[in-house]
Design brief:
single chain, alpha+beta, Phosphorylase Kinase, domain 1, seven-stranded antiparallel beta sheet, 7 strands
């Protein structure tokens, strides 16, 4: 009700309320109370001079501090700031080294959902791979392998620049019947196997092809993503080195 849920939790909550009459009624009651309080409760604004009187009273009640204490007090903000920087740095390194299980998968699903909700599905709209691939030049430090797989039932809609797992990623967008398929691509860090999983009703598949990591996300069935992966790999296998292939 306060709008403090993250994107995935908010979607899950809304899906639950759609099929739970008790929670839907509770949300309606809470909303009605909030509206009644906002519209009918009296509101009193403190007079402007009140703040001045409070500050004057505080100055009278606080005696001057010794010089040594004033110097220590002046140094305290610097020490606090240094401590905060240290804590933030350690926390960042700890978070990077201790990602919870499924953290990347949830981030990919969030990126997939966000791309459709925020009207940012495509930065370049084209089914022509010779148009989409050059668009990424200078935006990512690798050449994504772009193929139109319309003959296999996966039409290329275009692409966009996305940011996943702390780095830029090329996102190719395909359409299969009524489903949108996001294919996130970035350089492979090593030998990575194939993974097929699901997160909150979304299917995901990871595979590595010609030095690039592919993460495919959609609300389509897992078998559909497997067909997509086979079609993409078959098309990549016949692509020439350089040109429209991976450089």
């Amino acid at each position: 009700m306060d709008g403090e849920l993250d994107l995935m939790a908010s979607l899950e909550f809304n899906r639950h309320v759609e099929c739970c009459t008790d929670c839907a009624a509770a949300r309606q009651r809470v909303g009605a109370v909030r509206s009644a309080v906002a519209d009918g409760a009296p509101y009193y604004r403190a007079p402007d001079e009140l703040a001045g009187r409070i500050r004057a009273a505080m100055r009278r009640d606080v005696s001057p501090a010794p010089r040594q204490w004033r110097l220590a007090s002046a140094a305290r903000p610097l020490a606090v700031a240094a401590a905060l920087v240290l804590v933030a740095t350690l926390s960042w390194h700890f978070a990077r080294s201790s990602r919870p299980s499924g953290g990347l998968e949830r981030e990919l699903v969030a990126a997939h959902v966000r791309s459709m909700q925020a009207d940012h599905l495509l930065d370049v709209t084209s089914s022509n791979q010779h148009t989409v691939k050059p668009w990424f030049s200078g935006k990512v430090d690798f050449a994504p392998d772009v193929h139109d797989l319309a003959e296999a039932g996966f039409g290329l809609a275009g692409g966009r620049l996305d940011y996943v797992d702390g780095h830029a990623a090329a996102a190719l967008v395909y359409r299969h019947k009524l489903h949108v398929i996001n294919c996130f691509i970035w350089p492979a860090a090593g030998s990575e196997g194939t993974i097929a999983t699901s997160v909150q009703g979304y299917s995901l598949m990871r595979f590595t092809e010609r030095g690039l990591t592919y993460w495919v996300v959609s609300d389509a069935a897992p078998g559909t993503l497997a067909e997509f992966a086979r079609a993409l790999r078959a098309s990549a296998a016949t692509a020439p080195s350089g040109g429209d292939g991976i450089k």
